[in-house]
C-alpha cells in the first residue's frame, strides 16, 4: 500500500538512502531539510522543502503536505557538539516535529536514535532493556527525544530505532561520527588518519542498506517499540583501519592522539528483538560493505 511519507533530514547520509528506497517502492515522498547536506542526493519527483525543524512555520508546511507517516532523521549528530546545540536541534526540534505531527493526525512516527543513549555499557551484547546512561550531550539529547516520542504515543504509534555505527556509500568524510568514511577518504589520499586512545575501542558497524531494510520494514508494523539495529559483530578501530589500508592497498600509518572523554570504549548490539519483531537481520559483512564504500569514494 502506497503512503504519503515525510522525511526530515532526507538529504543526509541515511536519509537520502531511505528516500531513494521508498521512492522506488512508489510512495509519495516529501523531504524537510536545512540542507546541511546536499540536495543533489535526492531523486527526481521528491518534494523538497528547505526548512529548519525548529521553525514555527512548520505547522503550515505539515498542513500542506498532510503526511501519513513521518520519519524523523534530522539531527545534530556530533558527539562534541555543545549542550546548547544538541538541545536546539535534537530536543526542541524533535518536540516540534512530534507536536505538528499530532496536529495533522499522522498515523505512524519513526524516529532514529543512537547507541549513544546507553553510554558505557557493562554487559554485552547490549539489549534494549540495558540501562541508559549517556555520557555526551548528544546521547542525552537522543534519549530525551525518545522519551518525547513515548509521550506522544497516545496520539500515534512511534517506532524508535537505536542505530549502531552506520557506514556506507554517501557518508561524508567530514562527518565526525563517520570513522569509516574518514579512514577511506584519507587512505585513498595517502594521508594518515587520527586514532584516538589505544585504538582497541570497539564498535558495531552496520551497513547502510541493512539499516534501510529495517526502516522500511517498520512501515508494515506501526507499533510502539524500541529496537537496536546493529551487526552484532565487534570491530576495533585499529582492526577497521588496518582492513581499510589492506583493501585500499595503502601503508597502515596513522597519527595517535589521546582518548576523547565523551567517546565510549565498547559498543556491541544484540539485534535479536529486531529479528523477532520485524524479521530483520543484517545481510552485509564488514569486508563486503567496506569494498562497496571504497568503490563509492573512488568514483567521487
Outline the structure in words.
The protein is of the alpha/beta class. The protein has a domain of 205 residues: NAD(P)-binding Rossmann-like Domain (Rossmann fold, 3-Layer(aba) Sandwich), CATH 3.40.50. The protein has 9 helices and 12 strands. The strands form 3 sheets. Strands 3-2-1-4-5-6-10 form a 7-stranded parallel sheet, sandwiched between helices. Helix 3 runs parallel beside helix 4 and helix 5 crosses helix 9. It is globular and about 55 Å long.
Concise overview:
By secondary structure, this protein is of the alpha/beta class. It is built from 9 helices and 12 strands. Strands 3-2-1-4-5-6-10 form a 7-stranded parallel β-sheet, with helices on both faces.
Defining traits:
300 residues; 7-stranded parallel beta sheet; alpha/beta; 9 helices; 12 strands; Rossmann fold
What's the end-to-end separation, in Å?
A: 36 Å
What's the total count of β strands? 12
Tell me the overall shape: globular
The helix-and-strand class reads alpha/beta
Helical stretch tally: 9
Major sheet: 7 strands, parallel
> Low-confidence parts, pLDDT < 50 over ≥5 residues?
none
**What is the CATH top level name of the domain at 4-167 and 206-231 and 269-283?**
Alpha Beta
How much strand? 15-25%
Task: Identify the strand order in the major beta sheet.
Answer: 3-2-1-4-5-6-10
By CATH, the superfamily of the domain at 4-167 and 206-231 and 269-283 comes out as NAD(P)-binding Rossmann-like Domain
SSE order: EHEEHEHEHEEHEEHEEHEHH
Look up the CATH topology of the domain at 4-167 and 206-231 and 269-283: Rossmann fold
Radius of gyration: 19 Å
Amino acid at each position: 500500500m502506497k503512503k504519503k511519507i515525510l522525511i526530515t533530514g532526507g538529504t543526509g547520509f541515511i536519509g537520502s538512502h531511505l528516500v531513494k528506497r521508498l521512492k522506488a517502492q512508489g510512495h509519495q515522498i516529501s523531504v524537510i531539510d536545512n540542507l546541511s547536506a546536499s540536495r543533489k542526493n535526492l531523486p527526481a519527483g521528491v518534494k523538497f522543502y528547505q526548512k529548519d525543524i525548529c521553525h514555527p512555520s512548520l505547522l503550515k508546511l505539515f498542513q500542506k503536505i498532510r503526511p501519513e507517516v513521518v520519519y524523523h532523521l534530522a539531527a545534530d549528530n556530533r558527539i562534541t557538539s555543545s549542550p546548547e546545540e544538541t538541545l536546539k536541534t535534537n530536543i526542541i526540534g524533535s518536540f516540534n516535529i512530534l507536536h505538528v505531527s499530532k496536529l495533522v493526525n499522522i498515523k505512524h512516527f519513526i524516529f532514529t536514535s543512537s547507541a549513544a543513549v546507553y553510554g558505557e555499557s557493562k554487559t554485552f551484547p547490549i539489549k534494549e532493556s540495558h540501562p541508559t546512561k549517556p555520557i555526551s550531550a548528544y546521547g542525552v539529547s537522543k534519549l530525551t527525544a525518545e522519551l518525547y516520542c513515548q509521550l506522544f504515543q497516545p496520539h500515534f504509534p512511534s517506532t524508535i530505532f537505536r542505530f549502531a555505527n552506520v557506514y556506507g556509500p554517501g557518508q561524508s568524510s567530514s562527518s565526525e561520527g563517520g570513522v569509516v568514511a574518514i579512514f577511506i577518504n584519507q587512505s585513498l589520499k595517502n594521508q594518515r588518519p587520527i586514532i584516538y586512545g589505544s585504538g582497541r575501542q570497539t564498535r558495531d558497524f552496520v551497513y547502510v542498506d541493512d539499516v534501510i531494510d529495517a526502516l522500511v520494514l517498520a512501515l508494515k508494523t506501526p507499533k510502539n517499540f524500541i529496537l537496536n539495529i546493529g551487526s552484532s559483530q565487534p570491530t576495533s578501530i585499529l582492526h577497521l583501519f588496518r582492513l581499510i589500508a589492506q583493501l585500499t592497498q595503502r601503508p597502515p600509518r596513522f597519527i595517535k592522539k589521546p582518548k576523547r572523554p565523551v567517546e565510549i570504549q565498547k559498543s556491541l548490539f544484540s539485534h535479536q528483538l529486531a529479528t523477532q519483531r520485524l524479521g530483520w537481520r543484517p545481510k552485509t559483512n564488514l569486508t563486503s560493505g567496506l569494498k562497496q564504500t571504497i568503490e563509492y569514494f573512488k568514483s567521487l
